[in-house]
Amino acid sequence: MFMKKKISNPEFKVMQGLMKLVDVAHPYVPERAKIFGIRPGMTVVGYGCGPGRYAVEFACLVGEGGKVYAVDLIEIALREAEKRLKKNNTANVELVLAEGYASGIPAGAADMVCAIDMFHHVDAVPFLQETERIAKPDGVLILSGGHMTRSRVKKEVAASGLWLIAEESHHFIKYKKGNT
Known about the structure:
By secondary structure, the chain is α/β, with parallel strands linked by helices. The chain has helices spanning 9-25, 29-34, 53-62, 75-87, 124-134, 150-160, and strands at 43-47, 67-72, 93-97, 110-116, 135-144, 163-168, 173-177. It has a seven-stranded mixed sheet, with helices on both faces.
């Protein structure tokens, strides 16, 4: 399962409403997306995309020559993301409904996998195995723990043996593959 406990549609709607309030009070998503190091032409995966807050920003940053996969386990999340993408005339995003931890994204497709404010929802090892599978050999994982302490995130990722810290900032941890 993608999430430790899959949230219901009403729970998702409440979460989405809270995100909208945060975005009005403190619109940090566009600026935060810029600091991840996304460049034109990249392939970026937004894992746990929810209503697509970051998907639109990622799509702008990769440009027409790049691609974004917006992945979620919850169908309503992808429907909401699709509305946001259409509103913003975003064409370089593929919405992906994950089945369990399997995204269906081709192995080695992603320059960057971003898991923002969702790591607390997953079982670390199978999730990290999937992110490692879909990342290119020199691909990176951008991870923000959400409702987990930074030390717990680092401990769970280190225990997997799949990813090594490449960079750490106030907003995120950037990992590189452990075998590179």
